[in-house]
Amino acid sequence: MAITTRSRGSFAAPLALLALTGAILLVWSHVKLFWVDELLVLDTDSVRTAREVLHIQRRFPISLDPAVYHLLSHWCTVLFGPTRLALRMPSLFGFLLMQGALYLFTRRIAGARAAVFALAFPALSGALYYGAEGRPYGLLLGVFGVTMLAYQGATRAGGGRLPALAGIAIGLGLAENTHYFGIMLFLPVCGAELVRIAQRRRIDWGVIAAIAAGAACEVFTLPFHAALARYRDHYYNVGAVDAHALVRSYRLLLLNFQFSSAMERLSSVTLLVFLVMIVAGSLHAGRRFDLPAPELALVLLMAALPFAGYLLAKFATHTMEVRYVLGAVLGVAVLFALAIAPALERLHTYRAGVAAVVIAILCVGAVRVHMEAAETARVRATVQVTPEQKAMLLSGSDGRIYMQNEGSFQICAYYCTDPDIRSRLVMLYSFPQELRHFQRDTNSLTADHMRHFTGFHIEPWEQFERQPGDLRLVQYRTGWDWSDRALNADTATAQPLGEALGGDAAAVHFSGGAPPASTAP
Fold it and tell me: Nearest 5°: phi and psi at 386?
């Protein structure tokens, strides 16, 4: 017997929660600076025309995604300027679209009250981060949500089936053209349809045609594959993938906060218990719902996407990031709502739960905004220079400021408020050096491609080595900076001058003569 609450309730609660989530994402986006990966998107999408965007993605990609997100963010920057909000607008809209789709999907199964909690769940999860991120993942969540809703509509009795079938085809096509790992959406959709075929003992050719049409949209990604091939040989995060990556995916998907090692283990165990409980609870409560087996399969397979991502990484791609399997949050949200739905039949429990969810969303949002504001203040402070630091940085023989760390260069070039400093920045790269010291060439490929369409000063390390005199190099001792090792191999002299632009400035001399005199303040 289906729960009667599915026919009750207005849209006031879901609309209020959508507005609350949107407000938090807007504030978060306002205080959050661009970070390195977003700046690569900005470099790509703030060019003059959409044709240039497509040309860059075909020939010189630095943000390694198909065309859909880049075209949308390009048009947003054309309309609103190259601002943080403009670049993040498709992701923000996609995140809210996902929440709306979750509400409608769950309402059909377990009623309006449970649907409110399905809608609210992503706003409390680690996935919220991607709603204020100028990259494809928030938009991809919206595509996943709409495709789930379309599949539900296409497989249930009733009129208006053609728009739902079109929604499946368009959703699958958009997913694989928004991000290359968007192809993982085919797993829950195809798995659900296989369950449906086995249950009905006949094929629904309409759904099969919609899935095939979506798969055919892979052809639109083909023009971009050749340019990506160079990245695959020595990509930065390719390597052995163990079971820890699977656990980490769920932990970051649902929490996305930094923890100590001990707290990481505790949080991982807690989340595992939580996932087991909501799966068991949803299966037990599902007997009371109007929940067809194909839809249950769709939800379970969506929630299990990190397992699929782990297997894909283990045996094929050898790379796994939580953002590749972000769609799992939709499956977990529905399972959570189904598990608690029986308790929501009591009106006082429902009202108390909604109040608790609103308070939790406000608290989580406030914490994230506060942390982001602190990080913004820190970054802004590090990229400013005092008069003494400026004199030291510009006192090299050629008056230029060299950096090998591509990420730090981008931050300084974008956020340093001194135009004289920005105009003197030079990014260094070297395929042989990066391969020798880090066994990858991702940064060098990125820098080499940036030379073709950005206005930055970018030069090979080998040209830097041939420069005479006393040069200024700012070093960042992170996992991305190999300049120390390269200088040692060259037997160059590097005299520390002090901190500047968030790194350590040095006077570098390649001529083999006496070390340069100190110019430290």
Answer: -80, 165
